[in-house]
Structure formats: structure tokens, C-alpha cells
Design brief:
There is one protein chain. By secondary structure, this protein is an alpha/beta fold. The chain has two domains: about 80 residues, no CATH class; about 60 residues, no CATH class. Helix content is about 35%, strand content about 20%. It contains six helices and seven strands, in the order H-E-E-H-E-H-E-H-E-H-E-E-H. The strands form two sheets. A four-stranded mixed β-sheet has the order 1-5-6-7. The protein has a three-stranded parallel β-sheet with strand order 2-3-4, sandwiched between helices. Strand 5, helix 5 and strand 6 form a beta-alpha-beta unit. Helix 4 packs parallel to helix 5. The longest helix is centred in the middle third of the chain and has 14 residues.
């Protein structure tokens, strides 16, 4: 080592930074409100509803993530949601029954399910603290990382908060 040389200890530490924001599925999210299809926003009249479905421009949902629900306090039969889903299917990227928040959770979980977390077996992981990430996203990531990671921290390499570290006996047995 040269005297006065600057050493990047973070780069040499073996820390792996994961950014939950990078796991978010891209694309526009739309809420299809069944209330708009109801007579006076309260009652589903089958003939009127079927005409609405027939006349509606379903192409506007091309490649979008669509959550279907009803914001009115009305009883909407299951077949009506199914009919909307069937008409969305050739266009929408995702069709989901529930709120936009529930749709986001579903998409994030699907993204997590595609990840092989075992690649981080015995590694030191920092889950990046991003301003736009929801608490539930951190919770999901932490739960998935714990069985594999040697340690899990939150924040940035220069100022991380330690959250979990496997006991030495567990680490020694795995090696």
C-alpha cells in the first residue's frame, strides 16, 4: 500500500446493496371503477351494463396494469367483474381485483418471486433506503433475505442501520 493512498473500504467490504425501487414493475396503473357502469352509481342493470362493455374502448388499457373494483356501496355480481376482466385481457398487461395499492403489492411480490435469494447466501446485504419506497416493500424484502443473508442492514454503506446478523455458530456450520 502506498502511503497516503485512499482506500475504498466500502468497495472492499463485500457489502451488496439491493434497491427495492429497482424491483418495482414498470408501467401505468389504472383503477377500473365498476361504479361508472352502474345505473345512478348504485344498481347494475344487466342490459345497460352489457351495452357499456360492448361500447367501451378497451384498447385504452393496452400494456397497462389494471385493478378492478367498485368505490360505490353497491352489490356487483361476480360475473360482471369477470366480463370486464375478459374484455381487458387482450390488452392489459395485468388484471387484478382490488385497489391500486393491492395491485402494487401483488406486482412487487411477483417480482420478488422471480428472484433466487439463495445467491446471497452468507452475504452482507444493505437494503437501500429510498425515499419513494413503502414500508411494506422493505418488510417483504427483509423476510425473503433473512434465511440466506449473513447480515441485513438498512440505508447506505456509509450510514447503515444493522438489522439482522446470523449467529456465529450458524455461519460456521454453513461453511
Amino acid at each position: 500500500m502506498i502511503e497516503g493512498e485512499i482506500i475504498n473500504r466500502v468497495a472492499n467490504s463485500g457489502l451488496i446493496t439491493l434497491n427495492p425501487e429497482e424491483l418495482r414493475v414498470k408501467g401505468l396503473r389504472i383503477f377500473f371503477d365498476m361504479k361508472e357502469c352502474l345505473f345512478h352509481g348504485l344498481i347494475l342493470k344487466e342490459n345497460d351494463f352489457r351495452q357499456y362493455v360492448k361500447d367501451h374502448d378497451w384498447t385504452q388499457y393496452q400494456d397497462q396494469h389494471v385493478a378492478i373494483g367498485c368505490t360505490a356501496d353497491a352489490i356487483v355480481p361476480a360475473w360482471a367483474y369477470m366480463l370486464v376482466s375478459l374484455n381487458l385481457q387482450p390488452f392489459a398487461k395485468t388484471i387484478f381485483y382490488g385497489s391500486l395499492e393491492e395491485l402494487d403489492k401483488c406486482l412487487f411480490r411477483e417480482a420478488l418471486n422471480k428472484i433466487d435469494f439463495s445467491v446471497w447466501e452468507g452475504k452482507k446485504i444493505i437494503v437501500k433506503g429510498c425515499g419513494g419506497v413503502e414500508v411494506w416493500e422493505y418488510v417483504e424484502m427483509a423476510a425473503r433475505l433473512r434465511p440466506y443473508a449473513h447480515s441485513v442492514m438498512y440505508g447506505e454503506a456509509c450510514s447503515s442501520v444493522p438489522l439482522f446478523k446470523k449467529p456465529s455458530a450458524v455461519v460456521a456450520r454453513q461453511e
